[in-house]
């Protein structure tokens, strides 16, 4: 799903970096305008920690079961 989302974003003029690893702090561009996180609440929490205090907006897409922290579902 991450690859399909990235392809859609690129086709619509966005620059997109896909990080499939557990730790990706060093791969987040310093000028990133947002982060889209695909997963459950645990994935969203982990991704927020990887931002390291940046004020980058984070959009959570729930692929888990609860999804309290996600803004939207698949």
How many helical elements? 2
CA radius of gyration: 12 Å
Shape: globular
Major sheet size, sense and barrel closure: 3 strands, parallel
Average pLDDT taken over every residue? 89
- Give the strand order, joined by hyphens, for the main sheet: 1-2-3
Strand percentage lies at 15-25%
Helix proportion: 25-40%
- How many DSSP-defined strands? 3
Element-level helix/strand string:
HEHEE
Structure commentary:
This protein is of the alpha/beta class. The protein has a domain at 30-74. It contains 2 helices and 3 strands. The protein has helices at 2-11, 41-50; strands spanning 35-39, 58-62, 72-73. The longest helix has 10 residues, at 2-11. The mean pLDDT is 89.
Characterize this entry briefly.
With 74 residues, the chain is an alpha/beta fold. 27% of the residues lie in helices and 16% in strands.
Structural key phrases:
74 residues; alpha/beta; 3-stranded parallel beta sheet; 2 helices
């Amino acid at each position: 799903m991450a690859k399909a989302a990235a392809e859609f974003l690129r086709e619509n003029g966005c620059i997109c970096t896909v990080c499939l690893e557990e730790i990706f702090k060093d791969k987040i561009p310093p000028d990133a305008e947002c982060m889209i996180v695909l997963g459950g609440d645990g994935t969203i929490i982990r991704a927020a920690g990887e931002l390291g205090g940046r004020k980058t907006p984070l959009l959570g897409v729930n692929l888990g079961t609860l999804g309290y922290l996600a803004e939207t579902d698949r």
